[in-house]
Write a structure and sequence with these properties.
The complex is a heterodimer of chains A (about 210) and B (about 100). Chain A has about 210 residues and is mostly helical. Chain A has one domain (about 30-80, about 90-205). Chain A is about 80% helix and about 0% strand. Chain A has 9 helices and 1 strand. Chain A has helices at about 10-25, 30-55, 65-80, 90-115, 120-135, 140-155, 155-165, 170-175, 180-205, and one strand spanning about 85. Chain A is elongated and about 85 Å long. Helix content of chain B is about 55%, strand content about 20%. Chain B is built from 4 helices and 3 strands; from the N terminus they run H-E-H-H-E-E-H. Chain B has helices at about 10-20, 30-35, 40-50, 75-95; strands at about 25-30, 55-65, 65-75. Chain B is elongated. Chain B starts with 11 loop residues before the first helix and ends with a helix. The relative contact order of chain B is 0.21. Classes of the chains: A mainly alpha (about 210), B alpha+beta (about 100). Strand 1 (about 85) of chain A pairs antiparallel with strand 1 of chain B, so a sheet runs across the interface.
Amino acid sequence: MEKTNLTEAQSLELITSMINDTRNRLARNSGTPFLIWGYTTVAIALLNCVTTYLQLSHYWNFSWFAIPFIGWIGMMLFYKEDKGARNIIDRVISIIWCVLSIAYLWIFIGSAIYRAPILYYTILLMGVGTLITGLVLRHKTTQWCGIGAMICSLAYPLFTFLVLKCDIATINILKSWAWVEIAYFAAIFFVMMVIPGHILNRKYNRK
Amino acid sequence: MFKELNPLLHSELRLAVMSVLLSVESADFVFLREQTGATAGNLSVQIDKLQKAGYITVEKSFKGKMPRTTCAITQEGVAAFEEYVAALRSYIGKGL
């Protein structure tokens, strides 16, 4: 790049190619955070699904706490590889998820004080995050996965509403189906995070 | 009447650096070198020229034990770039 006698057309071409190359380079691996959190949550949810189905000790419920630990380690490893540059999209997405994480922490504390439908709130909040991320990235699949998750999250309050209408005998039968609730949670997370994560990586890494 | 092209920007490497910096908030020296494909020495000289013109800011820091040079475009740089592109368009538009 030593040339100085550029023609006007060459100058415009250089500007366009530099801007596009930079954007594409920074978008590489943008689906990886989705994959880290998605696979971690699905794996832990399936573990809890099995322990609930087999009616093992309730101490297995503490395994849910492994999600933030594994997730943060994964994110630290992901950010360890410095891209060397940062654009506004990176910053906006980081801020969105940071705010949502704080909101989720509040929900978690609230649900610890007073029993709240934590699976419903989790999917709803993460669905909002996925939808906003999809809107910022202008990626339709991610947007639809977020919307789909938000709609599917309604199954939890709906189920609770129906259970309250049942008699005691039916409620006892439904209690033995608790593992289905967790399996449903894992399935939604797979669709909401793992699928868009792979699609995003495939799209941007191919460029 | 043709607008005059800014001679500081009408150079391949300086224009490439400005284009990269326009699409990011900040970029380090290694990133700019890889994106432009320039040699470290040449890039360093051109960055210095752009900084002296007030088009970019250059911040030197350390990442661990490694020195790090981070560049970012200034408002003045953005204005000069926009003016340059407008001038280019006037040339191309009148040439057609």
